[in-house]
């Protein structure tokens, strides 16, 4: 910080001292001007003169009033205006006491609004100039009288310009602060949206694995007495499904940790590369699943890859829960132009509490997830029985949402 800036900061921190210094400077200027007689001498040079006692007293009172110009600008203007009026009418017409009224008028104009500035400025110029012209000892056209009019007008204009500049700078600062707050609110909104997406993913994970656990536990309970080996195998599937659920829950909930918490897992999100593994979990649960892929090794963005995996997972979970005994599922992944089409079919008879009637959130979450990345998803009963889920996902993610890590 430069010396000038440090001095300016100190003066701003002590405004009363700054006004006292200004008042002393104005008093010095008035005294210096009062000792000069521009009409003295031989007409070609200025002469010297001594101001009267009344002029000295009025200059002292006017300078003392300026010390309080920030605290009571209107009162100081009234006081300096009255003192200047007395000097212009009864005192030495060349004593520049009106200089204090000029400073006070500038202070009013720089602190008040524009209508107030115009009213007070016009009143001050009119009263002081008219009094000097009509009641003063000099001719009405004397340059001192015109000087009073000019200086008061310039003081009002300069003060209004300073006030306008301060208001402009303040508006720019407020706009910058408001923009900063808007950015922070936008960041918080994005965090909330991201956590909502994580919550939806959490629902998909829990629904899938709990459905498998429920099915395998029912099988184990049914064959426990007659076929213990099969019951043992079903319990092993229960254990594996529960372990997978815990791992995915741990990874997903880890994303919700705060910045000061231990580092969250960074396991990559599941995608179509785990489709065979997903199908095996359902086959182990007793649901025959056939997988056909014709995507020709297409590499999908992380968000699209995760959405495709979750759509298939949710659709197969619904088949497991609602299709009934003897049902089987068919999964196809096909690349069609700029899109990847996901189709899940089943031939189950279904129940009255099917996915479209049960009031659950699986199909709704599936559609929201696909829509969020710019795709479409339809689901409904097939002609002749069974259920069909069809999703069209863009190969290039058209959204700006951050990629999800589970």
Task: Summarize the main sheet.
Answer: 5 strands, mixed
Q: Tell me, rounded to a whole number, the average pLDDT.
A: 78
Quaternary form: single chain
Order of helices and strands: HHEEHHHHHHHEHEEHEE
List low-pLDDT spans. Answer: 41-47, 399-406
The class by helix and strand makeup works out as alpha+beta
Proportion of beta-strand residues? 5-15%
Number of helices: 11
Number of domains: 2
Rg result: 44 Å
Number of strands: 7
State the helicity in percent bands: 55-70%
Described by the principal axes of the CA atoms, the overall outline is: rod-shaped
Q: Strand arrangement, largest sheet?
A: 3-4-5-7-6
In whole angstroms, the N-to-C terminal distance is 50 Å
Name some characteristics of this structure.
Heat Shock Protein 90; two-stranded antiparallel ribbon; 5-stranded mixed sheet; 61% helix; alpha+beta; 7 strands; 11 helices; disordered C terminus
How would you describe this structure to a colleague?
The structure is a single chain. The chain is of the alpha+beta class and about 400 residues long. The chain folds into 2 domains: about 5-180, no CATH class; about 270-405, Histidine kinase-like ATPase, C-terminal domain (Heat Shock Protein 90, 2-Layer Sandwich). Helices cover about 60% and strands about 10% of the residues. It is built from 11 helices and 7 strands. The strands form 2 sheets. A 5-stranded mixed beta sheet has the order 3-4-5-7-6, covered by helices on one side. Helix 4 packs parallel to helix 6.
């Amino acid at each position: 910080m430069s010396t000038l800036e440090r001095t300016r900061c100190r003066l701003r921190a002590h405004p009363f001292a700054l006004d006292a210094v200004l008042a002393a400077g104005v008093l010095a200027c008035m005294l210096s001007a009062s000792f000069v007689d521009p009409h003295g001498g031989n007409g070609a040079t200025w002469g010297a003169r001594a101001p009267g006692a009344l002029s000295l007293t009025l200059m002292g009172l006017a300078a003392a009033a300026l010390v309080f110009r920030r605290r009571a600008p209107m009162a100081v203007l009234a006081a300096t205006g009255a003192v200047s009026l007395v000097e212009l009418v009864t005192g030495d017409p060349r004593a520049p006491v009106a200089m204090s009224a000029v400073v006070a008028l500038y202070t009013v104009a720089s602190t008040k609004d524009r209508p107030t500035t115009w009213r007070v400025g016009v009143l001050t110029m009119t009263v002081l100039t008219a009094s000097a012209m009509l009641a003063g000892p000099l001719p009405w056209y004397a340059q001192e009288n015109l000087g009073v009019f000019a200086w008061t007008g310039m003081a009002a204009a300069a003060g209004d310009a300073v006030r306008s500049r301060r208001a402009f700078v303040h508006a720019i600062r407020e706009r910058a602060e408001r923009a900063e707050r808007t950015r922070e609110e936008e960041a918080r909104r994005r965090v909330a949206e991201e956590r909502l997406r994580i919550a939806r993913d959490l629902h998909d994970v829990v629904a899938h694995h709990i459905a498998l656990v429920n099915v395998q536990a029912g099988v184990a309970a049914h064959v426990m007495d007659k076929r213990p080996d099969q019951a043992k195998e079903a319990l092993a599937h229960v254990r594996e499904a529960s372990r997978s659920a815990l791992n995915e829950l741990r990874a997903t909930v880890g994303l919700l940790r705060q910045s000061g918490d231990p580092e969250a897992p960074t396991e990559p999100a599941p995608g179509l590369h785990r489709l065979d593994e997903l199908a095996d979990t359902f086959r182990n649960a007793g649901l025959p699943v056939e997988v056909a892929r014709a995507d020709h090794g297409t590499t999908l963005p992380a968000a699209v890859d995760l959405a495709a995996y979750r759509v298939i997972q949710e659709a197969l979970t619904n088949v497991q829960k609602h299709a009934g005994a003897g049902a089987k599922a068919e999964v196809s992944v096909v690349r069609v132009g700029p899109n990847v089409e996901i189709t899940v079919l089943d031939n189950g008879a279904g129940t009255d509490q099917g996915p479209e009637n049960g009031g659950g959130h699986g199909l709704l979450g599936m559609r929201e997830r696909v829509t969020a990345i710019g795709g479409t998803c339809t689901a409904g009963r097939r002609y002749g029985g069974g259920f069909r889920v069809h999703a069209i996902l863009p190969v290039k993610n058209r959204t700006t949402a951050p990629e999800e890590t589970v």
